[in-house]
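seq as requested:
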Amino acid sequence: MPCMHRFMFWFPVRLGSVIVGVATLLQDAAVLVVCGVQRGDSRAMSESLEDWLQSHGSNAMAGLVSALNDNPEKFLNFFLAIFTVHGVSCTLLIVGALKLKLWLVYPFAALEGGRLAALTAAFTAAMLLARDNISSLGAITVSTVGGTFALLLLFYMWFCTISLCQMVKAVKRMNYMTKQMVLRERMARNRSKYTATGDIGYFSNQLLVPTM
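struct tokens:
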């Protein structure tokens, strides 16, 4: 059974999947622009990371930040490659939703699932760090609620593409069952016809072939 039948309570799932592809492609483009800018000015990024290490040297994330500081270009290239591949999957999703080709939708479904898992882990780690380093309860509450809402929206958009796959499979299954029922009825009528006329024949799955 599909996860949803309407996207945002109004749009069909097929159009919703196209909207999801376009929106996610814009997200990837924004990340690629930021990574490209930071890659061109890696010294400023290293200085920012160094300042963070001096202020939070005993933090649980200090090891990861130190690794980023040692070779920031390596991590930026990694993010550039990942989000470029993800952007290609968004384009495939748009084409697959328009043409109802599920094999074009599957790459996005898999990559987006991995991205959401990584974002959930990163958000959880960020909230734990915020609890230890931010004394303002209001700021922590706003960050937690806002981040949770953003994650839920991303999961909702992902479920739209999953629903598209489920609905296309369900329609194909129903069409197949309908064709089988029509074929059985036609074969039953042909059998009655040949029995009434005294001809002897044998039936395959699709054809009635009279014997000579």
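Confidence is low (pLDDT under 50) at residues 200-212.
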